[in-house]
């Protein structure tokens, strides 16, 4: 695998951002910018060998400076929602910004999606890696601890986009990193994503209230529209009157993975029969958030790459994570990172055809 680097744009403060292209011997490529660690493009073949970009994004840095849908971005310090924008740690209550109604979403205003990361390329395991690093200072967004974060991207000869996350802190804190890429295996400009089939290796999920906040319950998917234990079209349940679909305006929920952190087990699978493209997800995290792009047109249609209009459900996300709102439900896997300990998490998006 090779990595090339080119200028992508300049921020208002004069800071430069670059675009890195990872390419393997099969001509599969992934474009990533060190602004927000954003996955800008993923080009993979269909069953006829035709290449297409299968992730939503923008053509220029300027568009990413206002990225309300978090297209392709690294999310942190804490992905997803925290109820009442506050949490208690070691007897102290930390008040966070309310940027999702009365709740905290995706790390706040100065989230990891909104900074320029230091970037370098290194050799490893037969291929180059793109390594992004960032230090979030103690008190940023009112999170405790100086947090040093490292995200490594690599593209294997088997068409696997591997994302390795790690972090250390000098004070107990919370951390829950993920990537917010929107996928459409028909091609980013092919219209809505409702022609996809989905499998999630999970027998249960975490129900949400009408603000999309997990209630603390862990509920079986059996007999509900949340059951993706066999590959099926998710469009079958998207307009259901099930209260969970109503609360999420579609799918916007966390599934409790049966893989339990085993990277060798398939956590989820996305399939587009028309193109034959297949994407499998592997992760060390205990949960995955399936978001069906319900709010892409909440305010106005998004004008993406090649002037493509991204409207409602033009793409979907499979965000590997700790469960949302885990600081309010102690029986959920904990996102607390102790001072001196190391946070590690790996997610693999593997592309193929069927």
TrEMBL record:
Where does the record say this protein resides?
Cytoplasm
Recorded catalytic reaction(s): these are: alpha-D-glucose = beta-D-glucose
Instruction: Read off the Gene3D superfamilies from this record.
Output: 2.70.98.10
Active site residues according to the UniProt entry: 180, 319
Q: Does the keyword Lipid biosynthesis apply?
A: no
List the CDD domains. galactose_mutarotase_like
Q: What is its main location?
A: cytoplasm
InterPro entries, alphabetically?
Ald1_epimerase_CS, Aldose_1-epimerase, Aldose_1/G6P_1-epimerase, Gal_mutarotase_sf_dom, Galactose_mutarotase-like, GH-type_carb-bd
Q: Which UniProt keywords apply?
A: Carbohydrate metabolism, Cytoplasm, Isomerase, Phosphoprotein
Query: Could you name the Gene Ontology cellular component terms for this entry?
Result: cytoplasm
Its pathway is:
Carbohydrate metabolism; hexose metabolism
In this chain, beta-D-galactose is annotated as bound at: 80-81, 180-182, 252
Q: Which GO terms describe its molecular function?
A: aldose 1-epimerase activity; carbohydrate binding
| EC number per UniProt | 5.1.3.3
Where are the bilayer-spanning segments?
Answer: none
* Any one Gene Ontology BP term: glucose metabolic process
- What does the annotation say about its assembly with partners? Monomer.
Q: Which NCBIfam families match?
A: PRK11055.1 (NF008277)
Give the family per the record. Answer: Belongs to the aldose epimerase family.
Protein name, UniProt field: Aldose 1-epimerase
Organism of origin is: Ruminiclostridium hungatei
Q: Gene encoding it?
A: mro
């Amino acid at each position: 695998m090779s990595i090339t680097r080119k200028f992508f744009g300049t921020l208002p403060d004069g800071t430069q951002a670059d675009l890195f292209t990872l390419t393997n011997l099969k001509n599969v490529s992934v474009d990533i910018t060190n602004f927000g660690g954003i996955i800008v493009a993923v080009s993979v073949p269909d069953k006829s060998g035709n290449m297409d970009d299968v992730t939503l994004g923008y053509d220029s840095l300027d568009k990413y400076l206002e990225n309300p849908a978090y297209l392709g971005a690294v999310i942190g310090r804490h992905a997803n929602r925290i109820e009442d924008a506050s949490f208690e740690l070691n007897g102290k209550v930390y008040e966070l910004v309310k940027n999702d109604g009365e709740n905290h979403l995706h790390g706040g205003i100065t989230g990891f999606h909104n900074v320029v990361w230091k970037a370098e390329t290194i050799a490893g395991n037969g291929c180059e890696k793109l390594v992004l690093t960032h230090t979030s200072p103690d008190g940023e967004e009112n999170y405790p601890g100086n947090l040093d974060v490292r995200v490594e991207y690599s593209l294997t000869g088997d068409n696997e986009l591997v994302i390795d996350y790690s972090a250390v802190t000098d004070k107990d804190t919370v951390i829950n990193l993920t990537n917010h890429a929107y996928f459409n295996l028909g091609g980013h400009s092919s219209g809505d994503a409702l022609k996809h089939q989905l499998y999630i290796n999970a027998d249960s999920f975490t129900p949400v209230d009408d603000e999309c906040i997990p209630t603390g319950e862990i509920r079986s998917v059996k007999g509900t529209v949340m059951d993706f234990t066999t590959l099926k079209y998710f469009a079958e349940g998207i307009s259901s009157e099930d209260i969970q679909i109503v609360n999420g305006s579609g799918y916007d929920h966390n599934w409790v993975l049966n893989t339990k952190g085993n990277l060798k087990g398939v956590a989820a699978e996305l399939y587009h029969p028309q193109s034959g493209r297949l994407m499998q997800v592997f992760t060390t995290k205990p949960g995955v958030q399936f978001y069906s792009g319900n709010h892409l047109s909440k305010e106005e249609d998004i004008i993406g790459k090649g002037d493509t209009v991204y409207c409602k459900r033009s793409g979907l996300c499979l965000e590997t994570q700790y469960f949302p709102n885990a600081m309010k439900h102690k029986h959920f896997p904990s996102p607390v990172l102790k001072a001196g300990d190391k946070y590690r998490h790996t997610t693999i998006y593997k592309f193929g055809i069927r």
